[in-house]
Design a protein that fits this description.
Helix content: 55-70%
Order of helices and strands: HEEEEHHH
Largest sheet: 4 strands, antiparallel
Radius of gyration: 17 Å
Number of domains: 1
Length: 98
């Protein structure tokens, strides 16, 4: 995996390239509708640009915020919340059953 720069990412965003762009472990793809698909989540072009800038940031809070935004759009966040709720429910069941 190669290190990418903010300039490279911005150049890809404004280009007409249909090739996917990898930013860390995330795959950015341009859709025919003008939207950008990031890890199976659909974003408007401006949103995708902001996500990319946040992922390239040195600030860990910005990177985490970008990750959560991607998780929200592609359904991973919902799965995490459902699994966490199920685990907490089982823990509560075992505590109150005793």
């Amino acid at each position: 995996m190669t290190e990418t720069s903010l300039d490279d990412f911005r150049a890809w965003i404004v280009s007409r390239s249909s090739r996917p762009y990898y930013l860390g472990s995330h795959r950015f793809e341009k859709a025919a509708s003008g939207q950008v698909v990031i890890d199976r989540g659909v974003f408007e072009l401006e949103e995708a640009q902001e996500i990319g800038i946040m992922l390239l940031s040195k600030n860990p809070i910005s990177r985490l915020t970008a990750e959560v935004g991607i998780w929200e759009k592609n359904g991973t966040l919902l799965k995490i919340i459902l699994i966490g709720s199920a685990i907490l429910g089982l823990i509560a069941l075992f505590i109150f059953a005793q």
